[in-house]
């Protein structure tokens, strides 16, 4: 670890919590080193500060007054094997100090495993279909696999129509546009979700209104929706976070009462069940999916918008393709976007769909392993 970083994360032990947070932010490793002019006073983590704030300490509290675990240190000549033995689930950073009690380096090691949301399961069928695209020359947004993928995915979800897109974010944007969401409108979204949900709302000129989460599922809390509804509210976007369906019955009751559109953000929820497959639960207008590399079903990048309403389907198709008329090529009656999926991506998607039930079984097995 270089001297510049050590200097960046070092701060006088008389500093305030606010000053210490700023120092931790600069270092981007979650810690700050406390010192006076003569020696090292200990290490503090962002977790220590979080706990202090929850216990009622203010941002102007001197950092040395808050409770924190005793810092474990080692000398600069400590053998690597001994440093490893000192690492635990709670101790993941050991300051290495010299004889003058100055920090010269940090030993950092994390025994915890990083578990991905999902990993791509690519096999011979994907290779076969992609090779077919390459050999045929149909590599762009025209080609048989795009329509085939749309048809297969609509059938899988129990939808009448499906529109393949370049990614899940553009699927959300098309859904909002098809419902005429625009500047001056408000759309209710969960506070805990990937930024794409809120960004898609901002793309239309509307404002996202954030609703807190249920403590058990982390999904949008339906009981907090109505107090945030105003005359400008036009839609609700529940997110099925990590594949766990939101409480769609309550959400639809509220949407129906206030005449609001519903767009399901099912980016992580391929095949998830809420009475039926998510995407078009009850009176949902549009369901949106992502096929990014960390999703159960992947096309590398890609998305899908599904609907049972023909007028929304037709509008999304036109907007996806530069606003071009489906009847006359190069006639553009509205401003559109290039949100098309390529034939190569769709070819991967078709292969993935053919084995989706197997992929879902693997996901369930992983879930059972984690909770047990």
UniProtKB/TrEMBL annotation:
Its EC number is 2.6.1.102. Residues 9-54 form the CBS domain. GO terms for biological process: polysaccharide biosynthetic process. It is an enzyme of class 2 (transferase). Pfam families: CBS, DegT_DnrJ_EryC1. InterPro entries: CBS_dom (IPR000644), CBS_dom_sf (IPR046342), DegT/StrS_aminotransferase (IPR000653), PyrdxlP-dep_Trfase (IPR015424), PyrdxlP-dep_Trfase_major (IPR015421). One of its GO terms (molecular function) is GDP-4-dehydro-6-deoxy-D-mannose-4-aminotransferase activity. Pathway: Bacterial outer membrane biogenesis; LPS O-antigen biosynthesis. Its cofactor is pyridoxal 5'-phosphate. Keywords: Aminotransferase, Pyridoxal phosphate, Transferase. PANTHER family: DTDP-4-AMINO-4,6-DIDEOXYGALACTOSE TRANSAMINASE, TRANSAMINASE. This is GDP-perosamine synthase. It comes from Candidatus Magnetoglobus multicellularis str. Araruama.
């Amino acid at each position: 670890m270089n001297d510049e970083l050590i200097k960046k994360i070092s701060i006088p032990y008389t500093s305030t919590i606010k000053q210490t947070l700023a120092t931790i932010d600069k270092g981007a490793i979650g810690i700050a080193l406390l010192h006076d002019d003569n020696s090292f006073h200990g290490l503090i983590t962002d977790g220590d500060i979080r706990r202090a704030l929850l216990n009622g300490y203010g941002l102007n509290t001197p950092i040395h007054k808050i409770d924190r675990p005793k810092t474990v240190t080692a000398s600069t000549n400590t053998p690597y094997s001994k440093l490893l033995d000192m690492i635990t689930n709670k101790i993941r950073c050991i300051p290495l100090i010299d004889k003058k009690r100055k920090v010269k380096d940090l030993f950092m090691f994390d025994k915890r495993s990083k578990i991905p949301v999902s990993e791509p399961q690519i096999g011979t069928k994907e290779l076969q279909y992609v090779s077919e695209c390459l050999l045929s020359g149909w590599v762009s947004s025209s080609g048989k696999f795009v329509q085939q993928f749309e048809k297969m995915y609509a059938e899988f979800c129990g939808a009448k129509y499906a529109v393949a897109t370049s990614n899940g974010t553009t699927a959300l944007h098309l859904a909002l546009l098809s419902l005429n969401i625009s500047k001056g409108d408000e759309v209710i979204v969960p506070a805990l979700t990937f930024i794409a949900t809120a960004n898609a709302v901002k793309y239309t000129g509307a404002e996202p209104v954030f609703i807190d989460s249920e403590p058990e599922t982390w999904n949008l809390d339906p009981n907090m929706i109505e107090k945030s509804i105003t005359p400008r509210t036009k839609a609700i976007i529940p997110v099925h976070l990590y594949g766990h369906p939101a409480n769609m019955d309550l959400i639809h009751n509220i949407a129906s009462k206030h005449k609001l559109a519903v767009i399901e953000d099912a980016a992580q929820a391929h095949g998830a069940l809420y009475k039926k497959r998510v995407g078009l639960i009850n009176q949902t207008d549009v369901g949106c999916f992502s096929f990014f590399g960390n999703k159960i079903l992947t096309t590398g990048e890609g998305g899908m918008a599904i609907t049972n309403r023909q007028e929304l389907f037709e509008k999304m198709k036109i907007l996806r393709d530069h606003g071009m008329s489906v009847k006359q090529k190069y006639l553009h009656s509205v401003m559109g976007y290039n949100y098309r999926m390529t034939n190569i991506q769709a070819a991967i998607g078709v292969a993935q769909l053919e084995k989706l039930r197997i992929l879902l079984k693997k996901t369930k097995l992983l879930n059972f392993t984690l909770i047990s």
